[in-house]
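This week, look over our next protein:
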Amino acid sequence: PARLPALLISRVRPRTHLQYQKLHRCGATLIHSKWLLTAAHCFKRIIFFSTLVIPIQRVIIHPDFNSTNMDHDVALLELAVPAPMSYTIQSICLPSPVHQFLETADCYITGWGSMREGGSLTNLLQKAAVNIIDQADCQQAYANVLTPNMMCAGHMEGGRDTCLGDSGGPLACRQLPGQWFIAGVTSWGHGCGRIGFPGVYTRVTSVRNWISTYLPF
């Protein structure tokens, strides 16, 4: 099942969490001063930012989003005003459509979601190092549910994973000479940190051309 919408711009780069009626709903990633990338399944209501309060001007859900199998689970959020870039608020790099994230990449997941399956949300931003999982191994875990627009990250032995409340947040990978790229958007998974079931993410390279129709780069 999909991670339930659990919806911040907080002064932590480039991670963002979205709130509705002062409750955490989902994560998001600043990819431009006026644009955020998050999961499509988070949006059933209007959402506003907290900590640094910036209203959302427009929500654009991918036209091919399939709520049944979670394919193309991605959405763009346009801010009413640009986020004030600073040492603690910065955007992450977008990969090109042909960018490849290798299994040896230095990748991290972040969020304010539950720290264990069935647990409550946390008030502190959490991060964990994860591995890009080979697509064949991911396919074996999730069978025909997995599409080419999805990718897995975590550890096949379990233990480190996104969970309830982390939806829409980034799978970020550091590339030489130190630039950070968003490789995936937290989407769904079978439980949290279970053995043999890594987290599933929307593959950003698969939706890069769609993003380019709205962003000026």
Summary: Confidence is low (pLDDT under 50) at residues 1-15, 45-50. The first strand starts at residue 15 and ends at 20. Residues 13-90+208-213 form a domain with the Thrombin, subunit H fold (CATH 2.40.10.10). The two ends are 34 Å apart (CA to CA).
